[in-house]
Amino acid sequence: MTATIEVNGLRKRYGAALALDGMTFVVRPGRVTGFVGPNGAGKSTTLRVITGLDRPDAGTATVGGRAYASFATPMRHVGALLDPHALHPLRTGRNHLMWLARSQDLPAARVDEVLDLAGLTGVGRRPAGGYSLGMRQRLGLAAALLGDPPVLLLDEPFNGLDPAGIVWMRDLLRELAGQGRAVLVSSHLMSELQDIAGHVIVAGHGRVIVAADVDDLVGEYTSLEAAYLSLTAGVGGIR
Ligand SMILES: Nc1ncnc2c1ncn2[C@@H]1O[C@H](COP(=O)(O)OP(=O)(O)OP(=O)(O)O)[C@@H](O)[C@H]1O
Known about the structure:
8 helices, 26% strand, binds adenosine-5'-triphosphate, AAA+_ATPase, nucleotide-binding, transport
């Protein structure tokens, strides 16, 4: 159950903003790949294009050689945590997962498994609208894992987690990659990524500046943060 993400020549303009300008990279299975870059570099837009939430003006994005929209039960192929607030506030956390599971032909027992994995069993019957940001991130990760997908796309998954939650997320992402999944993590937390990522894609102005193994960057610049700051110096993100 492995799959590769291939992003090729994506271009996307929103009015005056050129969000993607030839974004091209490959995310391989079996490791965490960090996706970094200044605010406005095009990371979230890329993740939205991969999951069919946004249509590119040019270029392609595939998972295991297929477009996301071609999957009948996409959550079995790609798990995505893009917006932790994307939930109905009156639905309980468990019911949020339940309708997602039904839509993907997944058994109810899987809902309880991922609730437990996310540490939410105790609050699963409370309305998700009352969840804190950290709890919403956990619920979003539970949703991403529902279909046991070979590919995970996570946009800033550490945001809002408490210190124990950060350790939990770090260990889980390592474990998921160790199981052979392709795990793409967008984040501004260089120290976290240095710990868990094998590879990193540095984006700026809607395209890739550098894609390299973390060990190589740390060897050359002493830390991922130093590498990032050097590689993105002068690359203003916000235009
Ligand atoms: N729906 C939209 N409408 C208009 N402009 C948009 C939209 N989505 C993204 N943009 C613009 O596209 C550019 C890339 O934004 P994107 O959110 O992809 O960047 P990012 O790298 O994820 O940034 P951050 O690190 O701040 O999350 C920005 O200039 C942003 O303002």
